[in-house]
Amino acid sequence: MSRRALVNALLVLAVIALFAVPLLLDGGASEYAGTDAAVTEQLEADGYTPWFESIVDPAGEIESGLFALQAAVGGGVLGYVIGRLHGRRKHAPAEPERP
Amino acid sequence: MHIAEGFLPASHAVGWTVAAAPFVVHGARAVVTEVREHPESTLLLGAAGAFTFVLSAIKLPSVTGSSSHPTGTGVGAILFRPPVMALLGTVVLLFQALLLAHGGLTTLGANAFAFAVVGPWAGYGAYRLTRAAGAGLLPAVFAGVALADLATYVTTSVQLALAFPDASTGFAGALAKFLGVFALTQIPLAIGEGLLGVLLFRVLTTNARPELERLGVLKPAGNAA
């Protein structure tokens, strides 16, 4: 494994650890409610009534599916771009390699 | 950072929309100009949009016991300067407001101002300052991407505190309250996003060197900047 690939792998591991470690240490004590929803609930508890409703309000399962779709589209496009750039470099005619 | 539909008083909703609109229009022009003058940028523009699309869809746990999502706007701001992200970020917010009931149309202006204007500009500023201070590309990318994330949530807290000042402690008290919810939770997420930004730029410096040189991110024919 090249040094470059090793550092990249370590970066991925660091990101995973950054989110996995709090989850593991917590031991299921927190509910991990979203901060957006927490603020909304607090404002409603203080007596605020929203004056406009969402036009489309998908049910929970559908909503999580749509979020997954959003992530999938983003991940797909990102992968496509990196793949194309990578392929271009691999097949580039005698472009000077990085030292 | 999404202020939910109908949760800003009408005057604030209109005010933030008016404030964000010129940035978004200017951003749309910046995207059109970039694609017309540099068609070879389209791939990287797609990558910048895709990065914010995927990151803003993923809710991550934080040490505070809450969850939140990163923004992903810093990468595009560093690559193409912030105006481009004013458009791309607003497109993401519109998608979420229309299809996911996340954010809203009445709060689109405020959310766009935080997510697509302040975040990218703050991140770009941090990136430029870090580089001007003599740091290399990757530390500056980390600072820029992380700060774009954090600044977005700070802006949302300010917007909410302006709309809902505390009965006794006023704006400052409300700001402290909203920052306590948003900014604290966001710190580990901003760090994680910064690391992902570094990872992406490491991949790009290997595979997209000509584009990065043209965009001024890397010095032409230099070693790793």
UniProtKB/TrEMBL annotation, chain A:
Pathway: Cofactor biosynthesis; adenosylcobalamin biosynthesis. This is Cobalt transport protein CbiN. It is a multi-pass membrane protein. Forms an energy-coupling factor (ECF) transporter complex composed of an ATP-binding protein (A component, CbiO), a transmembrane protein (T component, CbiQ) and 2 possible substrate-capture proteins (S components, CbiM and CbiN) of unknown stoichimetry. GO terms for biological process: cobalamin biosynthetic process. The gene is cbiN. Signal peptide: none annotated. The keyword Nucleotide-binding does not apply. Its main location: membrane.
Automatic annotation (TrEMBL), chain B:
Gene3D superfamilies: 1.10.1760.20. The chain crosses the membrane at residues 43-63, 84-102, 108-127, 134-154, 174-201. GO terms for cellular component: ATP-binding cassette (ABC) transporter complex. The keyword Transport applies. GO terms for biological process: cobalamin biosynthetic process. It is a multi-pass membrane protein. Its main location: membrane. Pathway: Cofactor biosynthesis; adenosylcobalamin biosynthesis. It holds the Pfam family CbiM. InterPro entries: CbiM (IPR018024), CbiM/NikMN (IPR002751). Forms an energy-coupling factor (ECF) transporter complex composed of an ATP-binding protein (A component, CbiO), a transmembrane protein (T component, CbiQ) and 2 possible substrate-capture proteins (S components, CbiM and CbiN) of unknown stoichimetry. NCBIfam families: cbiM, PRK08319.1. This is Cobalt transport protein CbiM. The gene is cbiM.
